[in-house]
Each structure stands twice: as structure tokens, then as C-alpha cells.
């Protein structure tokens, strides 16, 4: 899997949604290898679009389509200010990955000093999450070569996620986490996420 994150700012969430709908209607049919996307606008106007492709080659081919360039110049860039792109083929799925049934999505931006160790810890937590945090449906984490990452976690609802955050973790997990300096640098809450699948 290949993930491309588009991040920027907007003063008009409806315009971002309209731009996305236009892309799905007019360009999605020709986007070979496109698997789907999770998108949303946070309360402070931060826009996050997490698009998934079956390969980097498919994502590149989509970006190079003339109609894609025209859509971005005429529509996309007009609704998203200061857009930045984050591309990754180093992708880990938590449980079954993302879910279109999520009522709340939290995007965590961070940097891991030891990516392999971070992945190992995440995998060790996966089997226990159904018991400890049933509100967590799944997730997708995309890593850059320097350890920067976007962790996109899908929850059944924001209310259940907030309740889950209050739970005290078991002692063994707390002990394991003592070895970590918190790699999360930023949290972006998408309270009204929208989804797309191929």
C-alpha cells in the first residue's frame, strides 16, 4: 500500500468537501490503483486528506494525469491553503486498517527515533486493544525514512474515544511505555470525517 497525506488550511470546509466530491465524480473513475481516502477538517481549519493506493507507481501515475493537474490548479488548491504533501510506501495497518464506519478520526503526527521498535510496540498492543479500547476500530500509520509519521486512528465515536482515553492502562503496559519518550507531536481531531472507497 502507498499513502499520500495532503495537509493544509481552509476557511471554508464546505468548499473542501465540494472539491472532494468533484474529484470523486469526475476523476476517480480514471484513478487506477486508488483504494480510497479518509478526509476531514478540524475545528481550527486544518485539512487532512489521507489517500490510499495499491502502489507508489499508481499514485504517481494519478498525480501525473493532466486532468488531475487541472483539478488541483482549478479546484483543489483554491480550497486548501498552504498544502503540503507526505508520501509513504512504509505503511502499517492496525487491526484491519481504516473503517468507513468510524464516527471520529484522530490524526497523530509524530516522529519515532526507532521506527522498528515503534512498530513492534504497536503490534504488541494490537491483540489487547479489543479488550482495553473497544472504541478503536482500526488504524493506518505511514512512515517517512527519517521516522516522521502520520498515525490515523478510527474510533466508533468521539464520546467513546474520550471515555477510552480516561481508562488507566494495565501496569505491564505502563511499564513498557516508560521506555518511550512520547513520539506524538500533534493531534488533529476530525469530528466530521468523510470516507471514500474504490
What does this molecule look like?
With 198 residues, the chain is an alpha+beta fold. A hairpin with a 4-residue loop joins strand 2 and strand 3 (46-53). The chain has 2 domains: 2-89, Alpha-Beta Plaits (2-Layer Sandwich), CATH 3.30.70.100; 90-194, Alpha-Beta Plaits (2-Layer Sandwich). The mean pLDDT is 92. It has helices spanning 13-26, 56-63, 66-79, 115-132, 158-166, 171-177; strands spanning 2-9, 34-41, 46-53, 81-88, 90-94, 104-111, 136-143, 148-155, 184-190, 194-197.
Short recap of the structure:
With 198 residues, this protein is an alpha+beta fold. It has 6 helices and 10 strands.
Termini distance? 14 Å
Strand order of the largest sheet: 4-1-3-2-10
Tally the helices.
Answer: 6
Topology as a string of helices (H) and strands (E): EHEEHHEEEHEEHHEE
CATH topology of the largest domain: Alpha-Beta Plaits
- The assigned CATH architecture of the largest domain is 2-Layer Sandwich
Strand content: 35-45%
Structural class: alpha+beta
Measured as a percent range, the helix fraction is 25-40%
Number of strands: 10
Average per-residue pLDDT, rounded, comes to 92
Please outline the major beta sheet. 5 strands, antiparallel
Low-confidence stretches: none
Shape verdict:
globular
Amino acid at each position: 500500500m502507498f499513502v499520500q497525506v495532503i495537509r493544509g488550511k481552509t476557511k471554508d470546509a464546505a468548499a473542501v468537501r465540494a472539491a472532494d466530491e468533484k474529484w470523486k465524480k469526475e476523476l476517480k473513475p480514471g484513478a487506477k490503483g486508488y483504494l480510497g481516502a479518509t478526509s476531514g477538517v478540524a475545528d481550527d481549519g486544518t485539512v487532512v486528506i489521507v489517500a490510499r493506493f495499491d502502489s507508489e507507481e499508481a499514485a504517481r501515475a494519478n498525480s501525473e494525469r493532466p486532468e488531475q493537474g487541472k483539478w488541483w490548479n482549478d479546484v483543489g488548491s483554491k480550497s486548501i491553503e498552504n498544502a503540503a504533501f507526505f508520501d509513504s510506501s512504509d505503511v502499517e495497518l492496525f487491526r484491519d486498517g481504516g473503517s468507513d464506519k468510524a464516527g471520529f478520526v484522530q490524526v497523530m503526527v509524530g516522529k519515532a527515533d526507532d521506527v522498528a521498535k515503534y512498530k513492534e510496540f504497536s503490534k504488541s498492543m494490537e491483540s489487547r486493544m479489543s479488550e482495553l479500547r473497544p472504541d478503536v476500530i482500526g488504524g493506518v500509520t505511514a512512515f517517512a525514512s527519517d521516522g516522521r509519521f502520520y498515525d490515523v486512528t478510527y474510533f466508533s465515536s468521539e464520546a467513546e474515544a474520550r471515555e477510552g482515553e480516561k481508562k488507566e492502562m494495565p501496569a505491564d503496559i505502563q511499564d513498557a511505555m516508560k521506555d518511550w519518550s512520547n513520539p506524538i507531536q500533534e493531534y488533529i481531531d476530525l469530528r466530521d470525517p468523510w470516507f471514500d472507497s474504490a
